[in-house]
Design goal:
The chain is mainly alpha-helical. About 75% of the residues lie in helices and about 0% in strands. The chain has two helices and no strands. The longest helix has about 45 residues. The radius of gyration is 20 Å and the shape is rod-shaped.
């Protein structure tokens, strides 16, 4: 049930949920794999957001310089 909750949250775009069930053996490996994947995916999304913000800033600066040149 815990793993299902996390996977359903992921399907809805929620990267904050983690599998917390106390498990051993294969289930422990699955828990760690899911949580590790969510951590990496979250970090990638953060990097993309940062890059997008940098591009917005650079685009705004270019647009401002073009307007200055035109006037």
């Amino acid at each position: 049930a815990d793993t299902r909750r996390v996977v359903e949250a992921l399907a809805d775009g929620d990267l904050t949920q983690r599998v917390t069930v106390d498990a051993r053996g294969d289930f422990s490996v699955l828990r760690e794999a899911i949580n590790g994947s969510l951590d990496k995916l979250g970090a990638t999304v953060d990097e993309i957001r940062h890059a997008a913000a940098s591009m917005r800033t650079a685009t705004g600066e270019i647009a401002r310089q073009i307007l200055e040149i035109q006037h």
